[in-house]
Write a structure and sequence with these properties.
Strand content: 25-35%
CATH class: Alpha Beta
Number of helices: 7
Structural class: alpha/beta
Number of domains: 1
Shape: globular
Radius of gyration: 18 Å
Largest sheet: 6 strands, mixed
């Protein structure tokens, strides 16, 4: 049973995940449990193939949870209705991936504004919010550039701004600096840290970068399908 805790954003409770390869059952996650508090930046580390991305996909409702429970802001999530899942992803969870996935035909500020317009916010307010987020990411002079005119680090900072455009409670980042050189990777993480400090956003970041993991508030290690903190 989930205890009500106003400071708790995420509660992953005994989550397991498996699939069949032919007749063989492969267990990816085994009774994974952990909690994240408001404003925490937590690294999720572990060897390739250990299930880190699968765990993020389950939390982000990109995979269907069949065993265990996940609470977001003290509410049980994993609705079966596609519209409900889409609404939670759009309004309460932000995603950043290794590849920025920006829309190349739109400018940086338009890329950040579009998710807001999808929720019904008018263009003027969406652009204003996008402007504020890009300034927080130190992209004042790059707002009207298209992705192809931006560096890799700038593209990823736009992707982070986009992920925050609908003021999510939780940010899930899967190797967000994996394609960046070490110096640029640290710049991106430092910008993210500034936003977290200002907004009290909660972040769960999958990374293989030990230096980045060491900057987080906590490190969770996924090993043999279970969490070792």
């Amino acid at each position: 049973m989930n205890e009500n805790n106003d400071n708790e954003i995420l509660n992953v409770d005994n989550v397991s995940f498996s699939y069949f390869k032919g007749l063989k059952k492969l267990e990816v996650l085994k009774n994974v449990s952990f909690r994240l508090k408001k404003g925490e930046m937590v690294a999720l580390v572990g060897p390739s193939g250990s299930g880190k991305s699968t765990l993020l996909n389950l939390i982000g409702l990109l995979e269907e949870l069949k065993t265990g429970k996940i609470f977001l802001n003290n509410k049980l999530i994993n609705p079966t209705a596609i519209d409900d899942r889409n609404n939670i992803r759009l309004n309460e969870i932000g995603f950043v991936f290794q590849f920025h996935r920006l829309l190349h035909e739109f400018t940086a500020i338009e890329n950040v504004a579009i998710p807001q317009m999808l929720t019904g916010l008018n263009k003027e307010l969406s652009m204003k919010r996008a402007d504020e987020l890009l300034k927080m990411m130190d992209l004042n002079n790059r707002m009207n550039n298209k992705p192809g005119q931006l560096s890799g680090g700038e593209q990823q900072r736009v992707a982070i701004a986009r992920s925050l455009s609908n003021a999510p409670r939780l940010l899930l980042a899967d190797e967000p600096t994996g394609n960046l050189d070490p110096k640029t990777a640290m710049e991106v993480i430092n910008h993210l840290r500034l936003i977290v400090n200002e907004t009290k956003l909660t972040c769960l970041i999958v990374t293989h970068n030990i230096e980045i993991a060491s900057l987080m508030d906590r490190v969770l290690k996924l090993q043999f399908g279970t969490i070792v903190e």
